[in-house]
Amino acid sequence: NGTLSGQVIASKPVTISLLDANNVTITAVVANPDGTFNLTSLAGSYTLVATASGFLSHQGPVTITAGNTSALPTSHLPAGDVDGNNVIDQFDAMTIGMSYASSTPAAADLNNNGVIDFLDLELLAGNYRKVGPSNWE
């Protein structure tokens, strides 16, 4: 077995998944509240994917070496993909606008403070027109 460690920053819980060559999940962990994670698996080549509700995903190829721990660079997930289609666009902004002052859908509460408001729209605006998944390098 080998271990991958890293940090993925988002204002919501982040799930880190290790996929095999057929895109089947081998193992998955929820990152700690500060975004740090450790994932252990058999040696081999995989795709590592980080996801959080309302955020573009992040992925990249990784190789796990038996007996070693590999540290990955810190990653920041872009906020604003409310509908989960890997594009931050007008439909995501419209969902925030239509849900203003409520708490649903939860994906639209980008800052995870319990209410959908202008602060969520600001987060989306900073990432408007971004497309995912972004690459882990």
Short description:
Helix content is about 10%, strand content about 40%. The protein has about 140 residues and is mainly β.
Q: How would you characterize the overall build of this protein?
A:
12% of the residues lie in helices and 38% in strands. The chain is mainly beta and 137 residues long. The strands form three sheets. The protein has a five-stranded mixed β-sheet with strand order 3-2-5-7-11, with no helix packed on it. Helix 1 packs antiparallel against helix 2. The chain is elongated. It starts with a strand and ends with a strand. The relative contact order is 0.22. The model has no long low-confidence stretch (mean pLDDT 96).
- How large a portion of the residues is in β-strands, by DSSP E? 35-45%
Q: What does the average pLDDT come to? A: 96
Major beta sheet, specifics? 5 strands, mixed
Q: Unreliable runs, pLDDT <50, ≥5 residues?
A: none
Strand order of the largest sheet: 3-2-5-7-11
Distance between the termini: 23 Å
Per DSSP, the total helix count is 2
Number of separate strands: 11
Q: Which percent bin holds the helix content?
A: 10-25%
- Principal-axes shape call: elongated
Structural class, please? mainly beta
Over the alpha carbons, how many angstroms does the gyration radius reach? 16 Å
Taken in chain order, the helices and strands follow as EEEEEEEEEEHHE
Core attributes:
137 residues; mainly beta; four-stranded mixed β-sheet; 38% strand; elongated
